[in-house]
């Protein structure tokens, strides 16, 4: 009886300690969540007008050190912050947020073996490549994309059934090809696109319903192929089929995100061009109009990529003054993606002038 009493007492004390520790952990997590909410809300609003959003990035790293269990949540939040900053045209601040995101993820224990962490890291690096391309930093974007591709190729080779890793490898390769095309390295870009095309086919054979794959990946592949000048463009039927896929994908609750919307708009512009080349002006105008409508609301919010696409559509539809006005607004932003250079060239051609340096 005495022994059993001792055991019961020990278990009671142990349970009490465990409960107290659990409550303390719960309170600490609640404090961390409150701090994150404050950082993303009131503090961000106060720091942004005075140009001190860098304080938030430093605070995030401090929280990651103090509460390791919050790192995935923190990384996710910083990924969203980057998207918000990008939508406002503050690409440098978006880059800073993605870098913080990567630093937070890098502090995770066993990050090299953690599958979720590796996926988030690959996505953050892809976002950095995109942002560098938007700023016209093609050499830097190319190096980052190459590093990302090198990093993820081995894990994909070791586990060919991991479709998430395969998707990230394709995104890295497409970012590399886009950078190479911008740098006029057409042969290198073409080789990477051939590899990407095979991998996209393989990926979509496993699941052709995910917009991240059948819209973002397939559409980006199409756009990259059409950007090459020394290889035949994709046939109109293939581009038409993609636009049909987009229409069926963007139904119900499966709305396209900002990147998918831009890709869909750009492909639809290109499809209109193909119809125009085939002397079908009505069909061309319908697709140009649809492309413009896709980005109308985002352009109204002042997003430079959307304004660039809207200007492209309006220019093709004959609204040259409106397109020029949009181009002026884009010029005032730091946006220097190859799409902006193309817009300037088209506007200059419409005006009968020699295009200036973008």
Task: Explain how this protein is built.
This protein is mainly α and 358 residues long. The protein has 15 helices and no strands. The protein has helices at residues 2-47, 54-66, 71-87, 91-106, 115-134, 138-158, 163-182, 186-204, 211-227, 236-249, 258-277, 281-300, 304-316, 320-331, 338-351. Helix 4 runs antiparallel to helix 5 (115-134), helix 5 (115-134) packs antiparallel against helix 6 and helix 10 packs antiparallel against helix 11. The protein is globular and about 60 Å long. It starts with a helix and ends in a 7-residue tail after the last helix. Residues 1-26 and 354-358 have low confidence and may be disordered.
How would the global form be characterised? Answer: globular
Main sheet properties: none
Determine the N-to-C terminus distance.
88 Å
Structural class: mainly alpha
Element order: H for helix, E for strand: HHHHHHHHHHHHHHH
Count of helical stretches: 15
Poorly predicted tracts of residues = 1-26, 354-358
Provide the residue-averaged pLDDT.
Answer: 81
Number of distinct beta strands: 0
**Taking Cα atoms only, what radius of gyration do you get, to the nearest Å?**
24 Å
- What is the subunit arrangement here? single chain
Helical residues, percent? over 70%
How much of the residues is beta strand, in percent? under 5%
